[in-house]
Amino acid sequence: MSDDTDAQHGGCFCGRVTFEVSGEPVAMGYCHCSSCRGWLAAPVHGFTMWPAEAVKVTSGAEVIGTFLKTPDTISHRQFCINCGGAVMVQHPTMGAIDIPAANLPGVAFQPTMHVNYAEHVMRIRDGLPKHAGFPADFGGTGELIPE
Ligand SMILES: [Zn+2]
Ligand SMILES: [Zn+2]
């Protein structure tokens, strides 16, 4: 990632935490799980998933807090301790980082799937695949359910 000419910049709500991403996301979509909804206080989470090495924090590392809902969670949720805004979700065991789409204004959000739709509270009829849990290539069953 030495060539960052294609880098896109993002950050938290107050702007103290900034980061950049390079290349292309692994996936974009919506997560409907109760953990994402509860943490973001939102009915659905628009995610952009990146290889961990594609993401670089460029300022504000000292104000990033990390919350683990359970000791063995795969999701290390990071937030800005200044504004309380979500920053990103580290998935260390997957080597991936999920950045809420709203934190990357320069990246066109092009969702291709819904995950954890079995937990949805907001129905979305957009014709995209609705995974009950996770797709098979995310370690899930790949089971699809109706919109
Ligand atoms: Zn902030
Ligand atoms: Zn989720």
Can you describe what's shown?
5% of the residues lie in helices and 33% in strands. With 147 residues, it is mainly β. The chain has one domain: Beta Complex (Metal Binding Protein, Guanine Nucleotide Exchange Factor, Chain A), CATH 2.170.150.70. The strands form two sheets. Strands 6-7-8-9-4-3-10 form a seven-stranded mixed beta sheet. Strands 1-2-5 form a three-stranded antiparallel beta sheet, with no helix packed on it. The longest helix has 7 residues. The mean pLDDT is 95. One zinc ion (ZN) binds next to helix 1.
Largest sheet: 7 strands, mixed
% residues in beta strands: 25-35%
How far apart the termini lie comes to 39 Å
Question: Low-confidence runs (pLDDT<50, min 5 residues)?
Answer: none
Strand order of the largest sheet: 6-7-8-9-4-3-10
Ligand names:
zinc ion
Write the layout of secondary structure elements.
Layout: E1 8-11, E2 18-21, E3 27-31, H1 34-40, E4 45-51, E5 55-59, E6 64-67, E7 76-80, E8 86-91, E9 96-100, E10 113-115
Parallel strand pairs: 3-10
Antiparallel strand pairs: 1-2, 2-5, 3-4, 4-9, 6-7, 7-8, 8-9
The structure holds zinc ion (ZN) (2 copies).
